[in-house]
Automatic annotation (TrEMBL):
PANTHER family: SPERMIDINE/PUTRESCINE IMPORT ATP-BINDING PROTEIN POTA (PTHR42781), SPERMIDINE_PUTRESCINE IMPORT ATP-BINDING PROTEIN POTA (PTHR42781:SF4). Gene3D superfamilies: 2.40.50.100, P-loop containing nucleotide triphosphate hydrolases (3.40.50.300). Residues 4-234 form the ABC transporter domain. It holds the Pfam family TOBE_2. One of its GO terms (molecular function) is ATP binding. PROSITE patterns: ABC_TRANSPORTER_1, ABC_TRANSPORTER_2. Keywords: ATP-binding, Cell membrane, Membrane, Nucleotide-binding, Transport. This is ABC transporter ATP-binding protein.
Length: 367
């Protein structure tokens, strides 16, 4: 049995169904992330696990025992908030010691646990400092130490990196991965930042409007999204209206033959979908290659187009390319890595180009 079981949990606020029959199993030692847009129900679910709120229907189980009716302080669960929630008049050591003191720990044990936990977050030399003397990243480490000091079974982290600037955020991501691996505590992490979720998690639950859309490992979510919402929410995709055509030549039978509305025919991964089915074809910008107009494309899926604009980002350049004729234009994005030193702009706005992609790239999504 999983460490934490969430079974058919619903939570309603007036007319709003904030959680709609959510079921999840979270394993011991997992770094598990709840990912979704603002208002999808992530914090509501976290509050139910912590015991700050109770579900209207369904049940939560920890280690095979129901959590219903157990108050937050008696659950082996701790929460780390984005705001840190440190006590300003207490030193770092006193802040970290607080949960143990509340639980009635003996002074020797308390001192030793605080010392060991501060060492885990690399703050052993800051034990006498006050919160106002610390940087944002250091305050976040104190909050993590306070969450871990009581050795919870589950540590809940509600957008803990949200208040940090981009560079520090990256550093703290690496810290969180290390820390979780070292302490082995199950982390349930909440974020709406998909890149962060992909970088940190063993598994991710993508949520939308109170429901779970998909639960998977990061690379599975990115390469095999279950539906349009997940495809759109994780990473970037170009979407094109498409219709399945009858299977073509026999060597193409293990592929889908698609007609892209206003553009032409392509081969795409997938099989067994009836001819005439309408939907959309999604392809990631990094899978679209841009080549010059006179280049003979070695890839079967190719169209000519014109560069509308480009966005230079340093490591990559994003090209927005208009495909199709008047009336059926379609703009798609192609992302090219600037991997050769010194070269960053291969094509200029207004230039005629071709785009192409491999026939195992992209995804057909039913309507
Ligand atoms: P964010 O990323 O913005 O924090 P979230 O995914 O955590 O969003 P929740 O905070 O769980 O979303 O909220 C889900 C929905 O439930 C929202 O529409 C929110 O307004 C509503 N909601 C949450 N708590 C309450 C409450 N106590 N009373 C009324 N509505 C609530």
């Amino acid at each position: 049995m999983a460490l934490l079981e969430i079974r058919d949990v619903s939570r309603r606020f007036g007319d709003l169904l904030a959680l709609d029959q959510v079921s999840l199993s979270i394993e011991a030692g997992e770094f598990f992330t709840l990912l979704g847009p603002s208002g999808c129900g992530k914090t509501t679910l976290l509050r139910l696990i912590a015991g700050f709120d109770e579900p209207d229907a369904g049940s939560l189980w920890l280690d095979g025992a129901p959590l219903a009716g157990i108050p937050p302080e008696r659950r082996p669960v701790h929460t780390v908030f984005q705001s840190y929630a440190l006590f300003p008049h207490m030193t770092v050591a006193q802040n970290v010691a607080f949960p143990l003191r509340m639980a009635g720990a003996m002074p020797d044990e308390l001192r030793e646990r605080v010392r060991a936990t501060l060492a885990q977050v690399h703050l052993e030399d800051k034990d006498r400092a006050y919160p106002h003397e610390l940087s944002g990243g250091q305050k976040q480490r104190v909050a993590l130490a306070r969450g871990l000091v009581g050795k919870p079974r589950v540590l809940l982290l509600d957008e803990p990196l949200g208040a940090l600037d981009a560079k520090l955020r990256l550093e703290m991501q690496i810290e969180l991965i290390r820390l979780q691996r070292e302490v082995g505590v199950t982390f349930v992490f909440v974020t709406h930042a998909q890149v962060e979720a992909l970088a940190l998690s063993h598994r991710i639950a993508v949520m939308n409007a109170g429901r779970i859309e998909q639960v998977d490992e990061p690379d599975r979510l990115y390469t095999a999204p279950a539906n349009r919402f997940v495809t759109d929410f994780i990473g970037t995709s170009n979407f094109m209206a498409a219709e399945v055509l009858p299977a073509g030549r026999s060597q193409d039978r293990d592929q889908l033959h698609l007609k892209l509305c206003g553009l032409g025919e392509i081969l795409a991964p997938g099989m067994g979908i009836a001819a005439g089915t309408h939907g959309s074809f999604a392809i990631r910008p990094e899978h679209v290659r841009v080549i010059g107009p006179d280049h003979v494309p070695e890839l079967r899926n190719h169209f000519s187009g014109r560069v509308r604009e480009l966005l230079y980002r340093g490591d990559v350049t994003v090209y927005r390319i208009q495909l199709g004729d008047n009336g059926t234009e379609k703009t798609i994005e192609a992302l090219m890595a600037n991997s050769a030193p010194g070269r960053a702009r291969f094509f200029e706005p207004g230039q005629t180009v071709q785009v192409c992609w491999r026939q195992d790239a992209g995804l057909f999504l039913h309507e």
